[in-house]
């Protein structure tokens, strides 16, 4: 985790929200197997047991998935450590108090421990007689020891915490319409920050108990007749309301622009209807019309209330789309009521959106300024070209400190968020951009986000091995690199005291084998022994992040003074 991420108080929660997407991604196949194997469908017990196995071990799945998601390079060693941590923690808890049930939270905590230890110690060096346990092999060991200590601690402090969580869950479950409305409202409002995943994890996997299963989602598929109320209300909004909003945007578009935006809006509407992925639609109006989005959040809360009053109980393993509706219908209560409620919501959304867009002249798709429309009309990059194109539009490789993704968004940390080229990002397929402060940026792309993030990381990896590449130049700004270099040349030389502080933090003159500047903002170092680096001192000297390349080789992100600093240190190497 970079220094910039640590400075942003929202950063850790956003990172956790992103990491939760990896284990959640296995739920659709688990739900499919569990449902198909039931007596009223295929009646094949081993298929049902295959799906049940995933739900029965969901905490372990979260331990592995969260650890891998938090690890800087998504390495499997973090996942192994997460599993070790979970097994140790649950064993210790069981020995202290068999009645303690942390459920999925134990898996999430174990995954967080493993991911954080991995990022901190993946390159650790040990004495020669312990060298076998150095590096990534050290992570499961230190995670297990940490889980041992936390297991002992939670064994004594968790019972009152568990009681508090149970009370909160009982309030939401037992408060009827009020609890349903609050949950539906907060679920949509938190989409802006990405923290809705954290709220959902509590409601779907923690609150409530039934025959060993916890959470509304788990209890629904375990056969709890009272489960499904905290999922049913999403179906009218996602399957009917937001697709109707997309139709309203199409009808409100200028006539000469309808052909251009029709295909895009149709794909967004179908995605929401079939799969329940709604963020691409929501980001077309979230920032253009915040009041409209607030109304959407209120309507979601009201949908939860209406479905609750009608005693409708529905479930899903991924989201509230047609696929999940069909699969869970056999377990539902009054599932047919979705059709009339959904039709009403379609009319409601269409009317509100059509009126608001025309009345307030909102810049929804097809109503943008001519320049923006022309930019969007030029098309999106093909899969093989997306990585370099997105890296360039985000200010170049030197501007990217961290690249990640959740289901529908790129989650980025930038050195300078003012360097991004928003028209180009829109041309590449962006549905919205969120600036969260301290360089944190989210780009809404839809389901392709994770693939784009992978291609961007591959591009950055290639650039890291080609330091001569001018990666900091923005499109349409050919003189940027020359200007930056001339500014550095004009800057005063590094004073001797500061240079000595750098040498000390880098393990001394004898530890530094080679140093050069990369992509205007990074030092590329080759050192004899990485364990002698004083990372706290480097942070005080202005290092914003570190990227390991190979044994003894790494990048330090230092900002615009990289070339001057490299020149001062090069003579000592």
TrEMBL record:
Localization in the cell: Cell membrane
GO cellular component entries: organelle inner membrane; plasma membrane
Transmembrane regions: 20-38, 50-70, 77-96, 102-118, 138-156, 168-186, 193-210, 230-249, 261-277, 283-307, 337-357
Catalytic site: 406
Gene3D superfamilies: Glucose permease domain IIB
Any one GO biological process: phosphoenolpyruvate-dependent sugar phosphotransferase system
Residue ranges annotated for the PTS EIIC type-1 domain, each copy included: 7-369
GO molecular function, one term: protein-N(PI)-phosphohistidine-sugar phosphotransferase activity
Residue numbers spanned by region Disordered: 462-492
Membrane topology (UniProt): Multi-pass membrane protein
UniProt superkingdom: Bacteria
Keyword Isomerase: no
Keywords on record: Cell membrane, Kinase, Membrane, Phosphotransferase system, Sugar transport, Transferase, Transmembrane, Transmembrane helix, Transport
Protein's UniProt name: PTS system N-acetylglucosamine-specific IIB component (Glc family) /PTS system N-acetylglucosamine-specific IIC component (Glc family)
Biological source species: Kushneria sinocarnis
């Amino acid at each position: 985790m970079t220094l910039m991420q640590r400075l942003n108080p929202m950063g850790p929660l956003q990172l956790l929200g992103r990491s939760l997407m990896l284990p959640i991604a296995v739920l659709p196949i688990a739900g499919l197997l569990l449902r198909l194997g039931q007596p009223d469908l295929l009646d094949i017990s081993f298929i049902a047991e295959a799906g049940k196995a995933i739900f029965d071990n969901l905490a372990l799945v979260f331990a592995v998935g969260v650890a891998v998601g938090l690890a800087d390079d998504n390495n499997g060693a973090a996942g192994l450590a997460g599993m070790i941590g979970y097994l140790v923690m649950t064993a210790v808890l069981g020995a202290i108090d068999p009645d303690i049930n942390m459920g999925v939270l134990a898996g999430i905590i174990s995954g967080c421990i493993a991911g954080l230890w991995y990022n901190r110690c993946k390159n650790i060096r040990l004495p020669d007689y312990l060298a076998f346990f150095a590096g990534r092999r050290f992570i499961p060991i230190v995670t297990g020891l940490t889980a041992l200590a936390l297991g002992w601690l939670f064994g004594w402090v968790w019972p009152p915490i568990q009681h508090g969580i149970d009370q909160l869950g009982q309030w939401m479950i037992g408060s009827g319409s009020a609890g349903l409305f609050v949950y539906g409202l907060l679920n949509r409002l938190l989409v802006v920050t990405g923290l809705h995943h954290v709220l959902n994890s509590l409601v779907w996997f923690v609150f409530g108990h039934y025959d060993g299963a916890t959470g509304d989602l788990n209890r629904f598929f375990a056969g709890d007749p009272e489960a499904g109320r905290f999922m049913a209300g999403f179906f009218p909004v996602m399957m009917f309301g937001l697709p109707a909003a997309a139709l309203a945007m199409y009808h409100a578009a200028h006539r000469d622009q309808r052909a251009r935006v029709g295909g895009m809006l149709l794909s967004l509407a179908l995605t929401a209807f079939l799969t329940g992925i709604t963020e691409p639609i929501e980001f077309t109006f979230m920032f253009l019309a915040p009041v409209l989005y607030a109304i959407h959040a209120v309507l979601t809360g009201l949908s939860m209330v209406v479905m609750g009053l009608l005693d409708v109980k529905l479930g899903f393993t991924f989201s509230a789309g047609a696929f999940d509706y069909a699969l869970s219908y056999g377990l539902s209560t009054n599932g047919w009521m979705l059709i009339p409620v959904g039709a009403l919501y379609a009319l409601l959304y269409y009317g509100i959106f059509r009126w608001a867009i025309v009345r307030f002249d909102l810049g929804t798709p097809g109503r943008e300024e001519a320049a923006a429309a022309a930019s969007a009309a030029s098309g999106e990059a093909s899969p093989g070209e997306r990585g370099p194109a997105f890296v360039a539009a985000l200010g170049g490789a030197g501007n990217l400190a961290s690249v990640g993704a959740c289901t529908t968004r790129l989650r980025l940390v930038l050195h300078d968020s003012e360097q991004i080229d928003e028209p180009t990002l829109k041309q590449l397929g962006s549905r919205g951009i969120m600036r969260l402060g301290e360089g944190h940026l989210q780009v809404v792309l839809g389901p392709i986000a994770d693939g784009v993030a992978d291609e961007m990381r591959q591009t950055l990896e290639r650039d890291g091995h080609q330091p001569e590449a001018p990666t900091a130049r923005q499109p349409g700004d050919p003189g940027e690199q020359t200007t930056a270099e001339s500014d550095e040349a004009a800057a005063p030389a590094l004073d001797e005291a500061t240079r000595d502080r750098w040498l000390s933090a880098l393990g001394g003159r004898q530890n530094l084998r080679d140093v050069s500047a990369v992509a205007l903002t990074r030092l590329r170092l080759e050192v004899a022994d990485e364990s002698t680096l004083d990372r706290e001192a480097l942070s005080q000297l202005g290092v914003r992040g570190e990227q390991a390349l190979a044994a003894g080789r790494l990048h330090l992100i230092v900002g615009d003074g990289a070339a001057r600093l490299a020149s001062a240190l090069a003579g000592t190497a």
